[in-house]
What we know:
Strand content: 15-25%
Structural class: alpha/beta
CATH class: Alpha Beta
CATH superfamily: NADP-dependent oxidoreductase domain
Radius of gyration: 19 Å
Largest sheet: 8 strands, parallel, barrel
Number of helices: 14
CATH architecture: Alpha-Beta Barrel
Helix content: 40-55%
Number of strands: 10
Shape: globular
CATH topology: TIM Barrel
Amino acid sequence: MKPFNKILQLFARQRAVEKRRLGKTGLDVSVLGFGTAGIGFGGASFDRVELLLNSALDAGLNVIDTGECYMESEEYIGRAIAHRRKDFYIFSKCGHLRGLEEEPDWDNMQRLQESLDRSLRRLRTDHLDVFFLHSCPKEVLEKDEVIDFMEVAKKSGKTKFIGYSGENDAAMYAVKCGSFDVLEMSVNIADQQSIDVILPEAVKQQIGIVAKRPIANIAWRYKDCPGEYFVPYWERLKKLNYDFLEDTHGKAVEVALRFTISVPGVSTAIVGTQQPKHCEENKKIVSRGLLDPILYGAIRKRWKEVCGSDWTGQI
């Protein structure tokens, strides 16, 4: 435990993360945020989560992203840092009350309301900063009922802002319908379709952008495909064959993360980990700023040369 604590202390002494405005919300968010799906699905202990989250806040990260289906994530966040509520913005999601593999809950507004109220109880707060619809399909969005539910949640004060978390046609509909303040979507070296198709419209509408999967699940580190969740990025990166991926650790992660935060419109990139040394390393990377324009342009050019018509945004 002593080496672990030492790493956390070093992490906590790092200077504050640069902040950006999250679209029209007025929230000044840290460029590097903390994603908690990994600590939920990864079975992290409460003690480790408590150390990770408090150290992240001490270092200047002020975005904590979670979801009601991320196992114990919300509960652990509430127990660990509710006493520091003024130090961070909390984002959560609804729509998969029984888990991502089960039938979603878009057809039952009562269950969605119960989900929101349960999230508030677990997180030990009276409001969320951003409340997202979680991968709700376009055909459901078009019926307006779930959007009406989100707008009522905002008017009630249970969330300051509402957002959509998802990809492709549904994300574009969410941008154009005019109801949402924030969009959360996959943006990375292996997932660039939204950069050309969706993000320009979102920026035009002054919608804040939260980038998930900003380091493409580090799928390049595997010689053989490690599992179904990694398949799309692993296969794409093999074809893209970026030179910088030859250094499978330090340089590759740095280029990938700095690429994402360099995408126009992106306000914060959420990275999850159970290892405090990764938090420290990612924060140092972000502090180096935007990627060199020549390298950024080369990555974009390579994507356009290689990408297939089926290389859509990954949920």
